[in-house]
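Subgroup meeting minutes
Present: P.N., E.W., G.H.
Scribe: E.W.

1. P.N. recapped why we're keeping a running log of single-chain structure predictions: easier to compare across weeks, and new members can see raw inputs and outputs side by side.
2. G.H. added today's entry (110 aa).
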Amino acid sequence: MNSSHTPQRLRSNIAHEMGHLLLEHEFSGVLVSDGGCRSLDPALKVKEQEAHDLSAELLIPKSAAIKAAFDNLADDEVAQRFDVSIEFARMRMNASGARKIATRSRARRR
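Output recorded in log:
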């Protein structure tokens, strides 16, 4: 953990690592090359994506993202509500499809 990170970034990092544990990922392979660059083989990339996806669900569940979209919350309001960074809130609201779901639902009601 990097102590210079914001509390929100630290929470995101912890949720990501929890994702690995909950998914029972075994640690194998080198994460950093001899030159100090991040080096992931394809199998590790899949595990990283899985951990990322689970961490997003842990911090902002899809059902909560959809409710936030129906409540017309802006990214900064979502970030504040879930104590995550604005960037994380924006990513989750977009990746979850929450805003598209709310927009399409409203359009059908008209």
